[in-house]
Request: fold
Amino acid sequence: MSRGGLYRIGGRWKAGMLAVVCWGATICGVFAQTETQGRETLRGLKGVGVFVEPLSPEVEQGGLTTPQLQTDVVLQLRKAGIPVLREEEVPNTPGMPLLLVHVNAFKRAPGPYAVSVLVAVYQRVALERNQHTSFAQTWSTSFMGMVGEEELSQVRDGVAAEIEKFINAYLAVNPEATVESSQAGNAEDPVS
Reply:
């Protein structure tokens, strides 16, 4: 997977991905949208697939691992009542909803890591003018910061904070998710 880029839109930094994501879908560009517009694209989703982009070996050696983040995100979503789709379910779900977590951390010399985190929802969408379909980012949140070399594992807290923003947006337009979750009990699949 290729790494994402950062773009300045309206005085704020936005992270954008130009990459090929699992299930063979191409992600296209970055666009500005209001919080309400982005949140509305989550209405009616019956869940999301979760894909944590693989971290660099340097980051994993520093104590932050891809499987650890994947487990963190899946458990946080399930605890909030948001269904997590298995990889094979995503292509058969309307819109092919995918929650992507992209963490980029690097350092050029001894000292802190520069970190950027992008949490974004990608869905199959249709153009209004000709109904051509594509896979596009419909909702996102991101942050950038610095962490000390010994504190790289604390990036997990930053990812959790961004996932919480997604949870709040999702539940704002899908309040029935928490009701369905409480009725389902604890019969969830184990985290894979």
In short: Residues 155-173 form the longest helix (19 residues). The chain has one domain: 5-183.
